[in-house]
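In the design runs reported in the main text, the only information available to the sequence generator was the tokenized backbone. The following block is the verbatim input for one such run; it is reproduced so that readers can re-run the procedure and compare outputs position by position.
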């Protein structure tokens, strides 16, 4: 049964055969969300820790990657282990209190207040909110990934 689950969830991105993805549904994904800083500055890392603590406070298993690898590589790492959502804390987060939330399967990103992150991810995981609803509610961020 486990092998069938893994085989069913595994795929490679069309644009890049080296980008492997485990497409677990959010409810069964071992980690629900990743929190990634854009830089290793103390202020950014403090905000990352705050968001991760909020997510874990809502019983959302969270992965924090503060490595110095490029952001695209860190996205690829969390895609490989099936993390459905990733929050990116950048320099704008320090000034306006907003963060970027990325959805694994579409790789689309939205900009939302950091205070909404835990509730939104919780609602995604429990099927109370869809990515399409999130795109309609929050501004979409246009970015080119590595």
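Verbatim output:
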């Amino acid at each position: 049964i486990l092998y069938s689950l893994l085989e069913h969830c595994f795929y490679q991105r069309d644009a890049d055969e080296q980008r492997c993805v485990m497409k677990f549904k959010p409810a069964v994904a071992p980690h629900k969300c990743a929190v990634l800083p854009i830089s290793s500055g103390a202020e950014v890392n403090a905000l990352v820790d705050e968001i991760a603590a909020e997510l874990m406070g809502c019983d959302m298993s969270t992965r924090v990657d503060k490595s110095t690898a490029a952001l695209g590589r860190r996205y690829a790492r969390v895609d490989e282990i099936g993390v459905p959502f990733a929050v990116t804390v950048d320099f704008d987060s320090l000034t306006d209190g907003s963060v970027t939330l990325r959805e694994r399967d579409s790789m689309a990103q939205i900009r939302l207040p950091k205070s909404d992150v835990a509730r939104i991810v919780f609602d995604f995981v429990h099927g109370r909110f869809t990515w399409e609803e999130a795109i309609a509610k929050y501004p979409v961020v246009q970015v080119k990934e590595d």
